[in-house]
Amino acid sequence: MGLVEILSDHTLQTVAIGAAILGAVSGVLGAFAVLRQQSLMGDALSHAALPGICLGFLWAGSRDLGAILGGALAAGALAALTVMAMTRLTRLKTDAALGSVLSFYFALGIVLLTLIQRQAGAGQAGLEAFLFGQAAAILREDLQVMGVLALASLGAVALLWKEFKLVTFDPVFARTLGLPVVALEAVLTVMVAVAVVIGLQMVGVVLMAAMIVAPAVAARQWVTRLGPMVVISAAIGMGAGVTGALISAMGRGLATGPLVVLAASAAVLVSILLAPGRGVIWDWMKRRAERRALGGQRVLTAIHALAAEHGDPEYPAEQSMLDVYFGGGTAAALDRLEARGAVRRAAHFRTEGVHWVLTPQGQAEAEDILAGGEGDRP
């Protein structure tokens, strides 16, 4: 099947649109969750949605998406409020509360799922697909539900942007301004539950946490401000969603949900490696440049010390002697110093090896380094 045929496929278009909606909402709300150090919140709420899925099915008597997502949202919101109550009314830390809530709700969901599967009738067949997602089953009508939830969430973020921003970075100051901090935190947490609900049919209960965290983590490597981070996080989420859908369509038997998560994880890996100022490679290059600069300074001040000891500013320092003093490896540093005009080769006896002399520029640089307290012991 050619690329044009794949892109014109009705099912792929539906899945790609759904994945893009999920990525955008997850990216925006995940940015707040990550900055509030609640990265595990998505994991807890996604697992907590399972009993809501089962109760929604039992209430509707069929796999009605509206009832199932409504139950999932109610269970997720209840779990979020439970976490907040546990952290505020007890001495438990957030991670302990999240772990407790996740375990309890997921265990309850598994019990309900087992009971449903024992009932007679074929209506419950495939309900366990919500554990890992079933993107191919998404319909155009489902996109309308996802779109409404997404617009409601993004609209709330836009309407309460300043309040959410202040609560995220300085809740104490927000409280002194008279803002309802607890209510705002509850709204943010419940909105994360909304994002989880949107992604249940796409990536499932188990993998949904990655869609909350991964785009935000990747975006955080590139920027230092909330606004750009939210935009980039949403873009990464949408890109991961569409990429996963395309790869799934081009492969045979490849599940869309895990591929979406893998695409988001790949974005995290690339960001951690390549992001300017924060990436591992940039950090390695910076440290390497600093080591090289420090090595050049040490060699420069050593030649300066030899010249001062002999009372001759143009005293030729033998390279082999410098190698002995520093344990070897001065050739590269001397070549770099020569390239920028700090030292020059000195004409000397050929049998005695290469000698180096400070130029006026090198003399001034060495004195500046020593005046700053560096290179006293090169």
Task: List the SSEs and their pairings.
Blueprint: H1 3-7, H2 10-35, H3 39-60, H4 65-89, H5 94-117, H6 129-132, H7 140-159, H8 161-169, H9 171-176, H10 181-220, H11 226-250, H12 256-274, H13 280-310, E1 317-318, H14 319-326, H15 331-339, E2 343-346, E3 355-358, H16 360-371
Antiparallel strand pairs: 1-3, 2-3
Helix pairs in contact: 2-7, 2-10, 2-11, 3-4, 3-5, 3-10, 4-5, 4-10, 7-10, 8-10, 10-11, 10-12, 11-12, 13-15, 13-16
Notable characteristics:
378 residues, mainly alpha, ABC transporter involved in vitamin B12 uptake, BtuC, Arc Repressor Mutant, subunit A, ABC_BtuC-like
What would you note in describing this structure?
- The chain is mostly helical and 378 residues long.
- It has two domains: 275 residues, ABC transporter involved in vitamin B12 uptake, BtuC, CATH 1.10.3470; 90 residues, Orthogonal Bundle (Arc Repressor Mutant, subunit A).
- The chain contains 16 helices and three strands.
- A three-stranded antiparallel beta sheet has the order 1-3-2.
- β2 and β3 form a beta hairpin.
- α2 runs antiparallel to α11.
- The radius of gyration is 31 Å and the shape is elongated.
In short, what is this structure?
The protein is an all-alpha fold. Helix content is 75%, strand content 3%. Residues 374-378 have low confidence and may be disordered.
- Using only C-alpha atoms, the radius of gyration works out to 31 Å
Proportion of residues in extended strands: under 5%
| CATH top level class name of the largest domain | Mainly Alpha
On the 0-100 scale, what is the average pLDDT?
85
Strand order of the largest sheet: 1-3-2
Along the chain, the helix and strand elements come as: HHHHHHHHHHHHHEHHEEH
Keywords: Cell membrane, Membrane, Transmembrane, Transmembrane helix, Transport
Subcellular location: Cell membrane
Membrane topology: Multi-pass membrane protein
Family: Belongs to the ABC-3 integral membrane protein family.
